[in-house]
């Protein structure tokens, strides 16, 4: 039988788990919960959206828009002077003409407001309704009367400019025809005199034919001139004249505030998503699973609050190592999951290590897991392999009632310096029996500073201690420094095999977890899982150096039935005499 989310070996744990289609809603919910971690970005987006909407609402409250509609009549002549076809007016060209500077200058002369034509044109909007020969002039101003005057002025300026242009075209064509007619009139008069003075009948016939042709051409030109002078050059007419509007043109302050808030929510979520994408930190247990390719075996409940600084570290070190209440139950749950894991069951040894940073939480986890395995009737050996800054001995001395000069003897595994201190002689076979109250007894091999840590960790004495787990009903827990800080843990993986990572998901990066997984797999081991905690997690009872009573079990937890020897009533640790 194996624990949830476990497998039989390191090679089977390494591949990333495939995402089942049924898990996609859970992933979406997890991502949405991660976005809500950046509430300040969402709040900032909403604030900016509301401010922008309020500014637009307030700035549009004193603006009024009036509209004038005109119909555009096709002109008889196009720009080249040729007669235009019926209905051949280009409304796109007419709209651009209505927005031109020429029309703006005529409107400025009419309004006489002292503003430049470009400034007046900036407040004008000309549109063409689909499938019509109509132009709609919409003018915006700070007063209703000014808006109506502006719309009417621009419409009149456009119509006047168009009529003037049509008249100018007709005048140019008439002038052109008259210039063509002048030489023909002279030729007609000359031919007429020649006919009158000619006496020969053959010559008279040729002159009469030429005279008739010139007269006919002159008649055509006179007809064209008459047609041009008779053409109607009316450019169009006003269909709807602008009147002063009764209400401002803006959508209103409430609507703009609502739109601004909606846009702000979208901007805030977008900013939170961008922040989440580029955030290298691990934020949720799902991120840990995806980066480590191993399950989360447990999550330690938070303590009374987050504390920072050296004083907070001293307070954390002074807490009792054995936990009570919900924290103790979480450690017990992790121990049971490890006990029924196939990989751990074959070797019964685990390396408890953080990825980087402080070792305090991993130290407390190793002690509590040792006590939990002792509850199960296992012969537990806890090996403190931190030979650079060993602290477990000091924690036991000050935090759990052990005092200097007690009954423990050096030769029996007491607290005096072990033989070989400062040399490569660690561990020299010294074990300290630790009484964990009702949980049972486990052995401790405390660490101390040595001059050559790599040689000490790879010595035959350490190999013999690790072989303790080969006995039936025996469990070995090894506490080592951070994997990414020192190579001490990597040096032990080939003999310990299984790794339990203790980390704070908010203080570790995804690439850190991936790097730890690669190092462990490269050294021939496997990551059993992760034990997550948060800053401030620790024992929830006791202060100073004396052990306190066990915290009452959390009433929110379901009732469990344990044998009598599994019930933990005290949370203090003490060293047994031998």
TrEMBL record:
Record-annotated membrane-spanning stretches: 38-58, 253-274
Composition-biased stretches (Gly residues): 1-10, 537-547
Top-level taxonomic group: Bacteria
Keyword Protease among record annotations: no
SUPFAM superfamilies membership: P-loop containing nucleoside triphosphate hydrolases (SSF52540)
Low complexity biased stretches: 79-92
Cited PANTHER family: CAPSULAR EXOPOLYSACCHARIDE FAMILY, TYROSINE-PROTEIN KINASE
Protein name: Chain length determinant protein
Compositional bias annotation for Basic and acidic residues: 11-25, 106-115
Region (Disordered), start-end ranges: 1-25, 77-127, 398-420, 537-560
Keywords on record: Membrane, Transmembrane, Transmembrane helix
């Amino acid at each position: 039988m194996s624990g949830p989310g476990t497998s039989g070996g390191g090679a089977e744990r390494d591949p990333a788990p495939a995402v089942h289609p049924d898990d996609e809603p859970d992933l979406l919910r997890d991502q949405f919960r991660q976005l809500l971690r950046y509430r300040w970005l969402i709040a900032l987006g909403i604030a900016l959206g509301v401010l922008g909407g309020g500014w637009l609402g307030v700035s549009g409250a004193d603006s009024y828009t009036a509209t004038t509609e005109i119909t555009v009549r096709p002109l008889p002549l196009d720009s080249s002077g040729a007669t235009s076809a019926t209905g051949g007016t280009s409304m796109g060209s007419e709209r651009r003409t209505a927005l031109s500077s020429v029309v703006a200058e005529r409107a400025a002369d009419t309004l006489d407001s002292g503003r430049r034509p470009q400034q007046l044109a900036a407040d004008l909007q000309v549109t063409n309704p689909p499938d019509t020969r109509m132009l709609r002039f919409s003018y915006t101003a700070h007063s209703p009367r000014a808006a109506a005057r502006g719309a009417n002025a621009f419409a009149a300026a456009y119509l006047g400019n168009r009529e003037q242009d049509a008249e100018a075209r007709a005048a140019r064509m008439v002038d052109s025809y008259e210039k063509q007619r002048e030489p023909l009139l002279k030729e007609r008069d000359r031919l007429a005199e020649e006919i009158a003075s000619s006496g020969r009948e053959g010559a008279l016939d040729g002159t009469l034919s030429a005279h008739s042709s010139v007269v006919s051409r002159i008649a055509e030109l006179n007809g064209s001139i008459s047609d041009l002078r008779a053409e109607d050059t009316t450019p169009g007419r006003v269909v709807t004249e602008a009147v002063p509007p009764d209400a401002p043109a803006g959508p209103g302050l409430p609507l703009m505030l609502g739109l601004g808030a909606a846009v702000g929510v979208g901007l805030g979520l977008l900013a939170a998503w961008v922040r989440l994408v580029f955030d290298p930190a691990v934020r949720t247990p799902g991120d840990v699973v995806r980066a480590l390719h191993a399950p989360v075996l447990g999550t330690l409940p938070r303590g009374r609050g987050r504390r920072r600084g050296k004083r907070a570290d001293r307070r954390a070190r002074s807490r009792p190592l054995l936990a009570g209440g919900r924290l103790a139950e979480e450690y017990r749950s992790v121990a049971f999951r490890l006990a029924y894991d196939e990989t751990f069951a074959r070797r019964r040894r685990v390396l408890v290590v953080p990825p980087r940073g402080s070792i305090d939480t991993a130290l407390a986890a190793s002690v509590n897991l040792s006590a939990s395995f002792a509850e199960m009737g296992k012969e537990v050996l806890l090996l403190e392999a931190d030979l650079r800054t060993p602290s477990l001995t000091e924690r036991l001395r000050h935090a759990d009632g052990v005092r200097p000069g007690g009954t423990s003897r050096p030769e029996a595994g007491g607290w005096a310096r072990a033989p070989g201190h400062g040399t490569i002689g660690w561990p020299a076979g010294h074990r300290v029996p630790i009484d964990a109250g009702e949980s049972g007894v486990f052995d401790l091999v405390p660490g101390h500073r040595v001059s050559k840590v790599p040689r000490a960790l790879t010595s035959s004495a350490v190999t013999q201690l690790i072989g303790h787990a080969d006995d039936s009903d025996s469990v070995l827990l090894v506490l080592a420094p951070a994997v990414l800080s020192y190579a001490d843990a990597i040096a032990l993986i080939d003999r310990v095999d299984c790794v339990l990572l203790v980390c704070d998901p908010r203080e570790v990066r995804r690439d850190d977890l991936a790097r730890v997984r690669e190092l462990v797999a490269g050294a021939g081991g496997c990551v059993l899982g992760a034990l997550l905690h948060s800053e401030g997690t620790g024992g929830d009872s006791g202060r100073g150096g004396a052990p306190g009573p066990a915290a009452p079990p959390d009433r929110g937890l379901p009732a469990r039935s344990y044998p009598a020897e599994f019930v933990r009533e005290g949370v203090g640790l003490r060293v047994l005499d031998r």
